Each structure stands twice: as C-alpha cells, then as structure tokens.
Amino acid sequence: MQEEFYRIKRLPPYVFAEVNKMKADARANGDDIIDFGMGNPDSATPEHIVDKLVESARNPKAHRYSNSRGIPGLRRALSAYYERRFGVLIDPETEAIVTLGSKEGMANLAQAITSPGDIVLSPNPSYPIHAFGFIIAGGAVRYLPAYVESPEARREFMATLKRGVEYSIPKPLAVVLNYPSNPTAESVDLDFYSEIVDFCRFHEIYILSDLAYSEVYFDGNPPPSILEVPGARDLAVEFTSLSKTYSMPGWRIGFAAGNKTLIEALARVKSYLDYGAFTPIQVAATAALNGPQDCVEEMRSLYQSRRDVLVEGLSAAGWEIPSPKATMFAWAPIPESYQEAGSLEFSKVLLREAKVAVSPGIGFGEYGEGFVRIALVENLHRTRQAIRNIKALLGGMPRADGGVMIKAVAE
Fold this sequence. Notes:
Blueprint: H1 6-9, H2 16-28, E1 34-35, H3 47-57, H4 72-86, E2 96-99, H5 102-113, E3 119-124, H6 129-136, E4 140-145, H7 151-166, E5 174-178, H8 190-203, E6 206-210, E7 236-241, E8 254-258, H9 260-273, H10 279-290, H11 294-316, E9 329-333, H12 343-354, E10 356-357, E11 359-360, E12 371-375, H13 380-395
Parallel strand pairs: 1-10, 3-4, 3-5, 5-6, 6-7
Antiparallel strand pairs: 2-8, 7-8, 9-12, 11-12
C-alpha cells in the first residue's frame, strides 16, 4: 500500500509542532505557560452577536442545509461594510461570497484556479496558507519579500516582483498580498496597492489580497482595501474575516469580495465541498456587521494596551522590538545574544526557562528566521508576568516563580 501521497510529500514538517509538543508536555507537568504562540483571541464574542445566534438556533428551519455562497442577508451586510468602511460598492450577488474563514477561502480558491505547474508569487515570511494553499493545489511558489514599509524595502519588493514575472515560465498566475501582515505586522498605503494593480494589469496577473486584520489597527491609521483602487476588481479579490474583529475565531466566518471571475470559480468549488456555515452563525455574523460597532473600538483599545505594555516592558528588560501599527502580533527580532541559536531554539529557551510560548519565525518561511512572533492574547497581568520572566532570562536574574534562569542558548 502506498504510504506517502503526492500532496502530503510536498508539505514540509510543521515547524510549530516541536514547540507545541514542548508546551503540552510542560502543562502536563503542571507548568503555567504564558501562551503568546497562537493568534487566538481570548475575549468573549460580543453579547448581541451571541444572542442573535441563540435566537436563530431556536428556529427549527435554521437547522437545514444552508447556502454555500452564504445567505443573501450576510452578503448584503458585507457589501454595506465595504461601502461605509472603504467607499467601495460591492455587488452582493456576483462580487461577494461567504467562506468558512479567510483561510478556507484562500485554500479553496487555490484549488479552483491552479493547474499543475502554475506559479504564484507569495510573500515570505507569511501565514502558511498563502503559499501552501497553492502548493497543495499542485502549483509552485516564488517568494516576494514581505517587508515594504520603508522606501528601500518597497523598491526591493517591486524589483523582486518584476524579476519573478520576467524569469517565471509559465507567467505567474497570481500575486498574494497580506497587509496588515501576519506575521510581520507591516501595513501599506493606497499608493502601494495602486502600483501593484497597475503592474498586474499590464502583465495580466490576478491579485489575491488577505485583509483579515483590516480592523485591528492602532493610532488612528485604518488600513486601506486594494478594492479602493480604480479598476482593481478587474483582477483582484480580497479576503476578510470576522475572527479578530468580533472575537469570533471558532465561528469560522469569512468572506471573499471583488473580481467576478474569481468569485465564481470559488463558488463553483465550494458548491462541491460544503453547504455553507450553519445558518444561525451566518445570521449572527450579519448582526455583527450591521449592529453596534463599539465592540470593535473596545477590541482595538484592548490590543493597543497590550501592545504598549509588551513593547515598553521588553524594552526595559533589554529586548527592543518594533511597536506594531496593526494586527494582534509583534514581530520581534531575536536578542543579539541568542541570534546564533535561531528562532526555533530561542522559542524553546523561552518556553523552558521563562515559561513563555511564542511562534518561531522560521515557521512562516525561511526569511522569518531571526524573529519570533508574539501574539497579544494574554491579559495585562500575565503579560507583565511574562516580561518579568523574560527579563530574568536575559539578565540571569530570579524568575517570577522563584526559579533562577541562566542566560544561555539552547543545547
């Protein structure tokens, strides 16, 4: 019997598995692990959204098969969101579809449009599905730098994009973008999107934009949508999600909006794979988009306060990390004394010695090496506790729980 299958062989070992096993073992031994590893919101879903779910679930008719495209009311709510947030008019019938989270949407679109050997240009480091959705679908990936905030980085991004098109045979099928970025937390402006749209229109390349963190921004700087660029819908589709905005990660509700051809291709594949999310979840998601938005402001304030405590506290501990402008992550360069060990080993040291879990940068692609991703998913008390433990690690001082840590790289 065949034991190794074609698509499985194309997937490398999951880098996070080793850290996750160490975390599970530590907890089994009774250790209190402060977990900044997974971007899993810890806040409760707003009450009015839950109430709508319960109300809808009590209707027996809502327990039948749903619609793989999403119920009409939810697609209209998405269109209304795009109009008030971005000034973009979306046709809910032909330019919008509901997905089981943005991750599922990206993966199923990759299945819909990718032929064996097709080339996709994707950022590195990046959220794994951006590249591996197309690898699973039989395509090949050429990498683009994820860093674009500085003028120098943006020029390098465009130069790499041009080389990727010039030296790829066949011509690339699509470019994947993700800003605000997971994991780097970088953001872009509308001029950047305009430049990408002009380039991809000239070369007849699709654009797939992941805007899952559209509402998790700080300091009054809301990220733009690529669909704000005139003519972008001729070649671009954008994925969004309610997971972070309304603390609904387990509900698995997201969207794709934009280019009609790509939306129809995604709808065709989804019609074979699912009947859509449970209808009461979609009804509640409609209430989230159409209802009061003070909960979104509260979410932003929560993450911003955690960001400020983390960045300021680690700076005082001797670990300087950039303050993210958006997302629920900090992308932290490994302290100089641990750089030789690498991101995976440094993550193990933090877990073993400081009882703090983070995600090693190498798990987001080879160009993530030298960094760790810190998710802002612990409350302020535990964040301060983590800072004390990390300070002890970096300085060889007593740990918060009474232990003593020695400043050393992993064996």
